Amino acid sequence: MAIFVFDKIKIAGMACAIPKNVIRPDDFKEKFGEEEVEKFKQMTGITESRRTDLHQTAGDLCFSAAEYLLKEKGIDKSTIGALVMGTQSPDYRKPSTSFIIHKRMGLSEETAVFDINLGCSSVLYGIQVVASMMMSSNISKALLVSGDTGSKLTNQSDKSKVMLGGEAGVALLLEKTEEESKITSLVRSNGEGYRYLITPAGGYRNMNPPREEVMCKDGIKRTLYDPFMMGTSVFTFTVFDVPKAMKDFFKETGTGVDDYDCFAFHQANLYILKQIGKKMKIPAEKMPLTLPTYGNTSGASPIVTLCDTYGKCKENKDLNVLMSAFGIGLSWGVTSFHINTADILPVIEDDSWFEEGLINSPAEL
């Protein structure tokens, strides 16, 4: 069992940036019909979400969140020893988007920088990776950012996905401390499920297949460039494997539901979240939901939830948080940490993008 314990490392702050552009399922009634849209809303709980404009990327949102976080926390950028980004929506095939953020923020050449190619579990795995780096180095402060803009690839006729996705960028500040502080993580993977959530074309295995739309088994036409999800398989995975991981985590840590103030889950689907909550006997007031107003924001979603729920909190309240994320790979896990509500910033809106990064011709290089 992959259990990681990090002593005297804390999450010292978190921030979230979202686009201003609001998309509602009701906007699709003319396309899919009122019955289909109402059924979708009942199943997912989504009433609206946020989407980036044409040239705005996950990197832009993560940059905004990171700049906001360091400014509000009064952090000297020269003290940041690592910048890690979790995304499956990079600005370019190469280089990693974290290098673009590094340049824009003006971080030191001594900063360790790289991307993690993960979706819904990117923050959970990212915390484990960044904390591991800090435990074995002289890095005292590090940034973890995460975001995806999956709707840019979604087939606009795919009723199973086009209304589901939301977009956001988040930033976490990890810091060494002399205080009593502990981050504990359990992570799991199952490559047998690699086809459950997949975009087959565009990688180096099959770079340029035809863009012909083909009728899939679920009655929806897609090309190989479109994201595909085996809904039944994903549902089974989440409602069985995620609660099991949580129970194993409780057993290993000697904790239970009553020991945590907040359960910050990946906001995948309202029915899935209710099933997990019911199985684990989690009180509704401890399990905030932001899926209805932000949609499924991939790996960013647990932090979106914390920022939306506690970002405007006026009191300094210590929270014992249990975060669980699950998705593409398959990958999933559980992480626990303490954070003060004063270190959770409110959600900001930002439509800015890195215009220098738009390259329209090889002659520009």
What keyword list fits this structure?
17 strands; alpha/beta; 5-stranded mixed sheet; 9 helices; 365 residues; 25% strand
Describe the model.
With 365 residues, the protein is an alpha/beta fold. It contains nine helices and 17 strands. A six-stranded mixed beta sheet has the order 6-5-7-8-2-17, sandwiched between helices. A five-stranded mixed beta sheet has the order 1-9-16-15-14, with helices on both faces. The radius of gyration is 20 Å and the shape is globular. The mean pLDDT is 95.
**Assembly annotation:** single chain
Which structural class fits the helix and strand makeup?
Answer: alpha/beta
End-to-end C-alpha gap? 48 Å
The secondary-structure element order is: EEEHHEHEHEHEEEEEEEHEHHHEEE
Describe the strand arrangement of the main beta sheet, using strand numbers: 6-5-7-8-2-17
The whole-number mean of residue pLDDT values reads 95
Q: Biggest sheet, open or closed, and with what strands and sense?
A: 6 strands, mixed
Instruction: Report the uncertain regions.
Output: none
Beta strand count = 17
Radius of gyration: 20 Å
Binned, the helix content reads 25-40%
DSSP helical segment count = 9
Shape: globular
Strand content: 15-25%
